[in-house]
Amino acid sequence: MKILVLNSGSSSQKACLYEIGETLPAHPPLPLWEGRIEWGSDTAAISVKNSQGDVQKENLKVRSREEFVRHLLNTLNVGPASAVASLSEIDAVGHRVVHGGPHFEDPVVATPQVRSAIADASTLAPLHIRAELEGMVIVESLLGPVPQIAVFDTGFYRQMPLYAQTYPGPYDWFKSGIRRYGFHGINHEYCAGRAAQLLGKEPKPLKVVSCHLGNGCSVTAIQDGQSIDTTMGFTPLDGLMMGTRSGSVDPGILIFLMRQDKLNCEQIDGLLNQKSGLLGISGVSSDMRDILSAMKEGHERAKLAYEIFVHRLRAAVGGMAAVLGGLEVLVFTAGVGENSPEVRATVCSRFEFLGLKLDSEANQQTSLDRDIAAADSRVRVLVIRAEEDWAIAAECWKLAQASAKVGRTG
Ligand code: ADP
After folding, report:
1. Domain at 2-152, CATH class
2. Residue 153 appears among annotated catalytic residues
3. Which of 336, 370, 394 is nearest to 16 (CA)?
């Protein structure tokens, strides 16, 4: 079956088309087609590639998000990088839904009732959820009544122990939906499964700490394939230092800024989400590559930004190892995790007390999904390519298989 995946971010839109046969492949296959829109201030860059390597790139003046998404999806069957003769070849569409609120855990068919329940959670992530629901409407208008499946980035965390989900504020917070939801769950769950597969083990029993280090960063503790704690919280602002996001700061700072500097909520939102993190401290960039090169040229604030980033990451990994009561596998994934041997080596160097030893040569290699720990290390260290879109396609395939089975037996 051919499965289209839509993954809407706040400043980008990704889409992939996968073909999955009778059995789910052990490794993510090459997509038949992949497309991406990057929104700038007045232009948007669209790039599309099919499995034959044909490419289509355009830079268009910004119009509505909807028009661009339609344009992107039209390149599936029209133009130099097309992959299907007709959109009717697509059997199902999977959507990454960033927030499932307190109710959604497993992937579900996005019926009108489900969509309205997703819309109810939109106050928790308004920009993302609006884009995701809009994506479902666009798909319906282009493809007709194809099954659309919502896969939740927060779903992996719904089984976390209550004490890990509950903030120690007033007791009523939890009931009113103020709790730790966690994010990047689709990729952390995928990485835990892939880690077990790479090590030739079952997910049970395995103690994994997974570090997703992209523009957004989070660490998740996974025991026996289930998440038991994570650094992102009620919003994706909590936890680690990120590209432009602060991660956890003393909430007293916000009270101080409101009282002393009379900042309002929009201003605080802007400071914490866009003007903090690597960019805020270095004043150079939110991109770890720029931080590393500025640091090598002696830029003091870039050095400080790097030091805060790795300090907080080490503290989070150590905390998660304590929550797990041990550490068997440490995973690095997403842009920084996959591509920065410096960050991996700096973080790992403090875990020698747990018997973790890096193979420094393996750490420098660029191939993905590999073990970079020394042979005698007591902790395996894996670099795993983030495969959110593939994980969503695989969930859609599993749901389709399960409903076909129900159809056959019932
Ligand atoms: P997103 O969270 O938007 O999906 P990615 O997972 O693609 O982001 O990660 C993007 C980040 O990866 C960039 O901001 C950059 O800091 C980092 N990155 C990419 N390549 C490298 C590299 N070679 N060295 C260090 N960092 C890198």
Report:
1. alpha beta
2. yes
3. 394
